[in-house]
């Protein structure tokens, strides 16, 4: 009995139906040293676009603070002002400007400042792009024959610049930017984002001014497409399952958590992939045979970067911001204490 | 059939879609409108002209002294209208008399009417009756093309200019536009089909007792496709114990129930025996022969006894005729006169659909006999009462028929008028000026007026007989336009509480959409055609009658009555033409002819085996639909045909018409459907145990739905009213309403930024072009309680998604103005009087605003000045004319960017401008959204991505709806759609949500399970604020949502102070006038009961029309006051001292003054 009680401190058990009222986590006060000791971070996978890592020994408030910062408080550069000189394409000005705003820009935002309200654009708070493009008819006989125009799949073959891509955006260095970013020229993260489609005679000319901002203000400044975590599943067999029942259980799990030994005995092959769909314990007969739980303080984080930062940078930047916040909070507290005195 | 050929295997239900595709390729969705209009312009117009073709003008004899030339001759002019010529392309005459071919888009932009000229060949003959009394033609002249007027042209009809253009988009038309509407003064008009009872049908009804009659058989008889109002004729059976009222017979008492007939123009009911004798059936046996086909049928004979006894005093035809004639309108004088009068009525106004010629008595007698037979059969309990709401007895007047009616009326008036003018000419001895007599504008304006207002025709009293026939085409969403073009209206009965005509009838199956109808007053009266329903255009019956004769139908005139009993009666369009001895043979022959398209496909062949009748219908307005033909419980359409249908190679391919011609499918109307055995599915045919005599098979049961209901995924899982709600809501969804929206100038339009085609789709959507012009987005929807901001049908929306362009839309509004004579587009300068308080500085040099300009409410966008109504030349010279401002300002509650400006000239050559404004609408709290299952809701809160709950895969919902929206509404389809969308999403395939197929929830669940998700679509989620795992699993998945046109920005309204009405000085009403909010009766009652008198006074007086007057205390009437000089005077009393000031509402003061103007003196008696 006490075993279960002990376990329920660290594990959230999952019932086969209804509401699980046991996930509310109450963490007891923990001395900083213990926390530091218990905390463990393992990177599980890392590539250019996303990172998955485990954090053990924190509670949800902590994990969630990080997640929220990743999404909405790490500054990036995004197009904020568009000077539209010419737009005869089918996309109205506002729509085009909005599309431009969403283009991720490959530039280190840490090298820029947030533009003040009354400040002008300058080399320290702004990156400028120009986009000037005109669609013309190619000089081939097919292109000159207007009857071929109908088929949309033809347009690349018939016209120059039938599609406008982010690669058509030209970086215009301001001041010393050219020198500063000699080695890492500023460009859109992806070259092949389709901005607009055009037909001969149509033209787009605009100046795009990027400013620094955070995802809280507008989602375009968010450095991640999403950042999330989940609790690590903990699955065990309470009793031995073999034979037909083993087969049945194995096929029940959509994630192939279970497998069968040569001896015909069921075993938990890979508990991490479990989605907690509860399919395995839906049938009454398995409820008591399987322990389906989540480790309460073990979080598996995934951060998917849009491309302005490397995924691991986002994590470190996020932690930095969290630190800043804590410091700020500490100072405020201190100030309050002093006030009281 | 070649048994070895693998391709001639039986088809599956899936293969039916190849045929459905072919059907829509050939017919489109508005072919009922177009084919009906084509028939009107190609044939009906000619028929109408021919009906009124000959005008005879006899000049009044003039005894002019001196000229004796023509005195001796009886000169008569004859004008004959011959061949009609309709101009092929709609043309437009510019103000400078140039003719241009116009295209629809130009007509729309310039507010022109899309119409074409009609010419008639006119022959004039001068005729003289010579001394021998023989007429001879003196002179004959022909005018080939006399212009009579213009007729509006339906878009995409045979007479539309677009017909000769290969690519519509070159003429700036939408690629997907189906046509089927008119353009009148620049606005698109639809002629909504009108439903009516069919003519020439015999209906037998039981009368509710107590009543004089127990049973009635009636018919509304009308000559084929003529415009004369139908003549009602009925045969009635008296109730037990009821005697003929005012019976003036000398025949003594008659016992038993007698039968009488009501004939048009005869004021009194005619005993049936008298009617028969008048129709030359003299002896009782002759009469009985007409009624009881079976000589041994003693029950029916007995039932006739009383009626025959009643007729005994009138044994001669003349006697009977005289009896009838004396009860006619004339009341006629002599016996001969009476008989002639009665003969005339019986010939012309009695059952005219049979004949209006001489010698048709026996045919008419047979028909009356038939009606009596039906009446007595019902009376004897052998047949039941007829069903008024049976759809086979309904006819739809489509655009062509409606225009035909209108044109006939106008043309008659027109010819009469022309005759009068010509007669005037002739009377004065002038030469007849034909082109002058035929006025140019009567027809043009008459048609245009009706189409522009929807007031269809006038009755004898000059009142409008039908309104709302022509409506402005709904252009909110592509589907709403389509649905509008397939709409039906049932006139009358608006307020009637009768529920029966509003209810869905069994016979609506496959013809009328069971879901799509408005709620409220017009519920069930306004209907919509099902997808594959088609309306017959009509063909002549003559050819069919000939064929019937050739195939051994014996004409009624030449048969022996005894033979009727054992033969089958043959009817064509409700008229009994004869009998046939081998019904089976006849039916199968004619049916084969129809199946090979030897006779038109729309002729319907109905065999009523129990009553031994065969009925053929060729008239227009019958709803029909195609069905597979089944022989030996096998569909005739085989795999090999399906392959040909799908083939892209021209030589092998088969289109729908070929399928018709090869006898694989055919059109059935409702009446014929009743005599067919139709299998629901191809698979059902195998079940021989249930039925082995199927004649047809449903092409696909989902084709019973109409345009709007076809958008709903899994409608077969929803509670039925929800489908009705969605059908109404789908019309308010924004999307891309037409692909040429940038080139159009609609007064109001919404376009969704990033429309998506749904993940889960019904098969029918392919034909509605919903995938090309969609109206919604696939949103990730969670059904959850999260905070409390989605209660009572509101939803929580993801702000980050909105930032990224989720459900953004553009809103267009067009303003237009004409500079009539004396008016100019220019910037009104300071000298102009009546300037608005808006901003004039945004105007360009020409007085119009320019594209790309940002505009706010009340900004002037069209600057226009008008010269005063009376200007004197002198003033003009000195340049001291004071011009009036007549500018147009932007609506005060709107703001946006000028999208485009056009300046052109209209029909009268006046300058004419249209200015289109564009604004962006970003979803915000209060905007309305709906799924495709009648689940609508407004945004109650927006949360950013980090605040939204997330799954263990990082998915955050775009929309969170409240679970309380589901159980009471039982929209299971909504949940199934979500589940199927989730599967479709992971499989990268389109989900199939076509109703009445065998996809089950279990299938979808299993698919989802195999993809690694919880079977039923539930997911573990984490709270966005606390980071804790939510205690329940959340049902989450993509669901197609629509943004509806109702947005807070168009509704938000508040006022602290503002404009007043001039008359009452009370605040104006309505948002567009910046009006106040009404403190109404109920609010007043509330305050009264609360005792808040001061507050009430403030609301009703201080804040409304507070005013004060000075009252003479002597007479109590209002006195003059000069407050500044402190001088007061009551003129009547010469009292300038005893005057007091009284506060009262301005409306009250107004009332007092109005009373005073009526010689009533309201006196205000003031006491201190
Ligand atoms: S909860 Fe679902 S995923 Fe997890 S082990 Fe059970 S069946 Fe597999």
From TrEMBL, chain A:
List, alphabetically, the Pfam families matched.
Answer: RNA_pol_A_bac (PF01000), RNA_pol_L (PF01193)
Where does the record place the DNA-directed RNA polymerase RpoA/D/Rpb3-type domain? 50-332
| Localization (cell) | Nucleus
The Gene Ontology biological process terms listed for this entry are: DNA-templated transcription
UniProt cross-references to Gene3D superfamilies, sorted A to Z: DNA-directed RNA polymerase, insert domain, RNA polymerase, RBP11-like subunit
Q: Which GO terms describe its molecular function?
A: DNA-directed RNA polymerase activity; protein dimerization activity
Q: What is its main location?
A: nucleus
Q: Specify the domain of life of the species encoding this protein.
A: Eukaryota
Its keywords, alphabetically, are:
DNA-directed RNA polymerase, Nucleus, Transcription
* Gene Ontology CC: RNA polymerase I complex; RNA polymerase III complex
Which InterPro entries does this chain map to?
DNA-dir_RNA_pol_insert, DNA-dir_RNA_pol_RpoA/D/Rpb3, RBP11-like, RNAP_Rpo3/Rpb3/RPAC1, RNAPI/III_AC40, RNApol_insert_sf, Rpo3/RPB3_RNA_Pol_subunit
The record's family statement is:
Belongs to the archaeal Rpo3/eukaryotic RPB3 RNA polymerase subunit family.
State the name under which the record lists this protein.
DNA-directed RNA polymerases I and III subunit RPAC1
UniProtKB/TrEMBL annotation, chain B:
Q: What reaction does this catalyse?
A: RNA(n) + a ribonucleoside 5'-triphosphate = RNA(n+1) + diphosphate
Does Amino-acid biosynthesis appear among the keywords? no
**GO cellular component terms, A-Z:** DNA-directed RNA polymerase complex
Residue ranges of every copy of the RNA polymerase Rpb2 domain listed in the record: 198-397, 471-535, 570-631, 656-701, 1075-1166
UniProt-listed Enzyme Commission number(s): 2.7.7.6
- Gene Ontology terms, MF aspect: DNA binding; DNA-directed RNA polymerase activity; metal ion binding; ribonucleoside binding
Name the protein family.
Belongs to the RNA polymerase beta chain family.
Name of the featured protein: DNA-directed RNA polymerase subunit beta
């Amino acid at each position: 009995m006490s075993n279960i009680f002990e376990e329920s401190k660290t594990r959230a058990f999952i019932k086969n139906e209804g509401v699980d009222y046991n996930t509310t986590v109450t963490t007891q006060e923990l001395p900083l040293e213990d926390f530091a000791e218990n905390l463990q971070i393992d990177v599980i996978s890392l590539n250019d676009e996303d990172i998955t890592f485990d954090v053990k020994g924190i509670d949800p408030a902590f994990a969630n603070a990080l997640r929220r910062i990743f999404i909405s408080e790490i500054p990036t550069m995004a197009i904020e002002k568009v000077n539209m000189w010419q737009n005869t394409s089918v996309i109205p000005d506002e729509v085009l400007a909005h599309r431009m705003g969403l283009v991720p820009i490959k530039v280190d935002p840490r090298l820029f400042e947030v533009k003040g309200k009354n400040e002008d654009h300058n080399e320290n708070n702004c990156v400028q792009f120009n986009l000037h493009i005109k669609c013309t008819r190619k000089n081939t006989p097919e292109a000159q024959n207007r009857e071929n125009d109908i088929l949309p799949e033809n347009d690349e073959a018939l016209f120059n610049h039938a599609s406008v891509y982010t690669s058509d955006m030209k970086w215009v260095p301001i001041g010393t930017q050219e020198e500063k970013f000699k080695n890492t020229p500023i460009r859109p993260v992806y070259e092949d984002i389709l901005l607009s489609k055009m037909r001969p005679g149509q033209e787009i000319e605009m100046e795009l001014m990027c400013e620094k901002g955070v995802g809280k203000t507008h989602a375009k400044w968010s450095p991640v497409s999403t950042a999330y975590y989940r609790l690590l599943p903990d699955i065990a067999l309470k009793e031995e399952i073999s034979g037909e029942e083993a087969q049945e259980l194995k096929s029940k799990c959509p994630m192939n958590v279970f497998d069968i030994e040569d001896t015909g005995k069921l075993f938990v092959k890979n508990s991490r992939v479990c989605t907690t769909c509860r399919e395995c314990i839906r049938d009454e007969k398995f409820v008591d045979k399987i322990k389906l739980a989540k480790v309460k303080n073990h979080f598996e984080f995934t951060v998917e970067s849009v491309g302005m930062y490397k995924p691991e940078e986002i994590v470190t930047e996020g932690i930095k911001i969290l630190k800043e916040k804590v410091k700020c909070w500490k100072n405020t507290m201190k100030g309050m204490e002093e006030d009281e005195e | 059939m070649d048994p070895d050929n693998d391709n001639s295997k039986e088809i599956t239900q899936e293969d039916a879609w190849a045929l459905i595709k072919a059907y829509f390729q050939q017919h489109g969705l508005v072919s009922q409108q177009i084919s009906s209009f084509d028939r009107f312009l190609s044939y009906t117009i000619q028929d109408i002209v021919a009906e009124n073709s000959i005008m005879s003008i006899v000049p009044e004899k003039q005894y002019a002294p001196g000229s004796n030339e023509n005195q001796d001759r009886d000169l008569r002019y004859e004008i004959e209208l011959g061949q009609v010529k309709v101009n092929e392309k709609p043309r437009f005459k510019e103000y400078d008399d140039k003719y241009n071919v116009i295209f629809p888009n130009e007509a729309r932009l310039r507010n022109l009417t899309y119409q074409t000229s009609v010419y008639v060949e006119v022959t004039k003959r001068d005729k003289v009756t010579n001394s021998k009394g023989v007429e001879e033609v003196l002179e004959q002249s022909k005018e080939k093309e006399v212009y009579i007027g213009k007729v509006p042209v339906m878009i995409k009809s045979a007479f539309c200019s677009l017909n000769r253009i290969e690519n519509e988009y070159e003429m700036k038309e939408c690629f997907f536009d189906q046509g089927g509407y008119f353009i009148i003064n620049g606005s698109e008009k639809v002629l909504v089909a009108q439903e009516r009872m069919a003519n020439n049908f015999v209906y037998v009804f039981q009368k509710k007792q107590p009543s004089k009659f127990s049973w009635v058989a009636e018919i509304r008889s009308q000559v084929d496709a003529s415009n004369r109002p139908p003549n009602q004729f009925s045969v009635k059976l008296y109730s037990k114990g009821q005697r003929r009222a005012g019976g003036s017979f000398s025949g003594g008492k008659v016992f038993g129930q007698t039968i009488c007939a009501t004939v048009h123009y005869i004021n009194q009911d005619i005993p049936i025996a008298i009617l028969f004798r008048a129709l030359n059936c003299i002896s009782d046996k002759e009469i009985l022969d007409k009624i009881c086909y079976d000589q041994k049928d003693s029950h029916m004979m007995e039932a006739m006894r009383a009626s025959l006894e009643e007729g005994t005093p009138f044994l001669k035809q003349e006697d009977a005729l005289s009896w009838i004639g004396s009860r006619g309108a004339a009341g006629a004088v002599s016996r001969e006169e009476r008989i002639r009068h009665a003969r005339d009525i019986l010939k012309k106004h009695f059952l005219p659909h049979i004949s209006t010629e001489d010698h048709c008595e026996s045919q008419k007698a047979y028909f009356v006999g038939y009606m009596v037979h039906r009446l007595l059969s019902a009376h004897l309990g052998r047949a039941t009462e007829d069903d008024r709401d049976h759809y086979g007895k309904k006819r739809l007047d489509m655009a062509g028929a409606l225009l035909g009616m209108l044109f006939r009326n106008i043309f008659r008036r027109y010819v009469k008028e022309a005759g009068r003018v010509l007669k005037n000419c002739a009377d004065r001895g002038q030469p007849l000026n034909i082109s002058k007599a035929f006025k140019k504008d009567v027809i043009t304006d008459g048609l245009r007026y009706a189409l522009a207002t929807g007031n269809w025709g006038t009755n004898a009293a000059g009142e409008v007989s039908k309104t709302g026939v022509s409506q402005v085409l709904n252009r909110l969403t592509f589907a709403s336009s389509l649905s509008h073009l397939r709409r039906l209206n049932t006139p009358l009965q608006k307020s009637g509480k009768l529920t029966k005509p509003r209810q869905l009838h069994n016979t609506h199956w496959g013809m009328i959409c069971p879901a799509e109808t408005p709620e409220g007053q017009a519920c069930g009266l306004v209907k919509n055609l099902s997808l594959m329903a088609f309306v017959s255009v009509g063909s002549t019956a003559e050819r069919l009658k000939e064929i019937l004769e050739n195939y051994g139908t014996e004409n009624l005139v030449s048969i022996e009555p005894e033979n009727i009993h054992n033969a089958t009666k043959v009817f064509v369009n409700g008229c009994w033409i004869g009998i046939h001895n081998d019904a089976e043979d006849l039916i199968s022959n004619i049916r084969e002819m129809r199946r090979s398209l030897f006779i038109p496909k729309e002729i319907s062949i109905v065999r009523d085996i129990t009553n031994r009748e065969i009925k053929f219908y060729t008239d227009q307005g019958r709803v029909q639909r195609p069905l597979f033909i089944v022989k030996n419980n096998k569909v005739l359409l085989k795999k090999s045909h399906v392959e040909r249908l799908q083939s892209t190679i021209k030589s092998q391919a088969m289109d729908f018409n070929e399928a018709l011609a090869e006898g694989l499918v055919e059109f059935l109307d409702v009446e014929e459907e009743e005599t067919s055995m139709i299998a629901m599915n191809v698979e059902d045919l195998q079940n021989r145990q249930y039925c082995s005599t199927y004649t047809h098979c449903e092409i696909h049961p989902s084709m019973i739905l109409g345009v709007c209901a076809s958008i709903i995924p899994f409608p077969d899982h929803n509670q039925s009213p929800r489908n009705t709600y969605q059908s109404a809501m789908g019309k308010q969804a924004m999307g891309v309403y037409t692909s040429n929206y940038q080139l159009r100038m609609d007064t109001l339009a919404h376009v969704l930024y990033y429309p998506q085609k749904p993940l889960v789709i019904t098969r029918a959507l392919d034909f509605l072009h919903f995938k090309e012009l969609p109206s919604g987005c696939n949103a990730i929807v969670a059904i959850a309680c999260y905070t409390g901001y989605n209660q009572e049908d509101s939803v929580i929306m993801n702000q980050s998604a909105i930032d990224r362009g989720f459900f953004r839309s553009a809103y267009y509004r067009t303003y237009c103005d004409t500079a009539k004579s004396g008016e100019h587009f220019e910037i009104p300068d300071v000298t102009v009087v009546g300037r608005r308080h808006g901003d004039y500085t945004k105007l360009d040099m020409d007085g119009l605003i320019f594209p790309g300009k940002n505009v706010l409410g009340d900004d002037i966008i069209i600057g226009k000045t008008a010269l005063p109504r009376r200007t004197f030349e002198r003033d003009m010279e000195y340049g001291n004319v004071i011009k009036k401002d007549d500018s147009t300002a932007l609506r005060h509650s709107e703001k946006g960017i000028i999208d485009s400006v056009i300046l052109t000239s209209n029909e009268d050559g006046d300058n004419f401008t249209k200015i289109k404004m564009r604004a962006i609408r970003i979803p915000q709290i209060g905007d309305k959204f709906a799924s495709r299952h009648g689940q609508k809701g407004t945004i109650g809160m927006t949360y950013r991505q980090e605040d939204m709950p997330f799954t263990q895969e990082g998915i955050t919902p775009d929309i969170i709806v409240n679970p309380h929206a589901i159980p009471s509404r039982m929209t299971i389809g909504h949940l199934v759609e979500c589940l199927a969308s989730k599967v479709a999403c992971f499989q990268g395939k389109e989900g199939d949500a076509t109703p009445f197929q065998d996809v089950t929830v279990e299938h979808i669940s299993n698919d989802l399970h195999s993809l690694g998700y919880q079977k039923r679509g539930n997911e573990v989620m984490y709270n966005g604020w606390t980071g804790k795992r939510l205690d329940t699993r959340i049902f989450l998945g993509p669901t197609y949502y629509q943004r509806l046109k109702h947005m807070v920005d168009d509704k938000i309204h508040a006022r602290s102070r503002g404009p007043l009405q001039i008359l009452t000085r009370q605040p104006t009403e309505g948002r567009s006038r910046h009006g106040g909010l009404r403190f109404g009766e109920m609010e007043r009652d509330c305050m009264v009961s609360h005792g808040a008198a001061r507050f009430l006074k403030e609301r009703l007086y201080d804040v409304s029309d507070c005013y004060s007057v000075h009252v003479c205390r002597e007479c109590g009437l209002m006195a003059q006051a000069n407050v500044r000089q402190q001088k007061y005077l009551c003129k009547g009393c010469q009292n300038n001292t005893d005057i007091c000031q009284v506060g009262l509402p301005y409306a009250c003061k107004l009332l007092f003054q109005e009373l005073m103007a009526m010689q009533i003196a309201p006196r205000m008696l003031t006491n201190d």
